[in-house]
Amino acid sequence: MDEGNCSSLTQFVFLGITNNPGMKVTLFTMFLIVYCINLLANLGMIILIRMDSQLHNPMYYFLSHLSFCDLCYSTAIGPKMLVDIFAKNKSIPFSGCALQFFVFCAFADSECLLLAVMAFDRYKAISNPLVYAVSMSNRVCSGLMAGVYMVGIADALVHTTLAFRLCFCGSNEINHFFCDLPPLFLLSCSDTQINELVIFTIFGFLELSSISGVLVSYCYIILSVLRIHSAEGRFKAFSTCTSHLTAVAIFQGTVLFMYFRPTSSYYLDQDKMTSLFYTLVIPTLNPLIYSLRNKDVKEALKKLKTKRCF
């Protein structure tokens, strides 16, 4: 559609999670609890890693950034969603919508790549433990994280620019609880084939790179573990990877289901539940997965409790 025929929208209006008054209190209470746990768990993980010197190694450095990414993209969506459950006016400015999507996309993309970096870190730690400190020095870790954030921001900038240059000449009501690409595409009266192609190419490349990086790293990890003669040594090596594999499977599986489909297959009521899962539940699960299954984190928590007691 020619840009001259486009109306200049100043705001969008969210239809929200539900219009059922009987469900609002229950949903608000449930999601508020989830978001508070998310906030406390991720902030707690970041602070704990910064405070405990035994956690000052590459694995926990990357874990602190995972918590940071979870915190940022869930906070871009969670508070607004909670307010809108009871709000009569669920509007968001056009620029605010673009900013919300940009922040969400930048940190979600960064987490996608970070999971691959964490798999590479585990490979280095298990295959060559004697040179691990040298191969994964502070300079290397900082460089990897800078690359992760740069790619995440660049990808978010591309998707945000393309999405918010579309024509929205009809309704301004978004059948969702945040500014995401699928409901925006359905709302637009422009041809969104280019946008969908960009998602399948750029974001598809990021997903493929991340998943391939994880798979290759774990193939080498398995080969390295098989060379360990003691059963105890093998168990210890694998135990450091189970939390990461769980986080990868949950995050990547949800993202692939959500974004790698044609527009015609979007079912927004069903997709709202999926979106709630990866915008609020996954960021809450990640710190719990790593803390409940991690001996070092448990010991750091015990030390912190002991210090407080005295």
Task: Give a short synopsis of this structure.
Helix content is 75%, strand content 3%. By secondary structure, it is mainly alpha-helical. The termini are far apart.
What does this molecule look like?
- The chain is mostly helical.
- Helices cover 75% and strands 3% of the residues.
- It has 11 helices and 3 strands, in the order E-H-H-H-E-H-H-H-E-H-H-H-H-H.
- It has helices spanning 21-51, 58-75, 78-86, 94-127, 132-135, 138-163, 181-187, 193-226, 231-259, 268-292, 295-309, and strands spanning 11-14, 91-93, 173-174.
- The protein has a 3-stranded mixed sheet with strand order 2-1-3.
- The radius of gyration is 21 Å and the shape is globular.
- The termini are far apart.
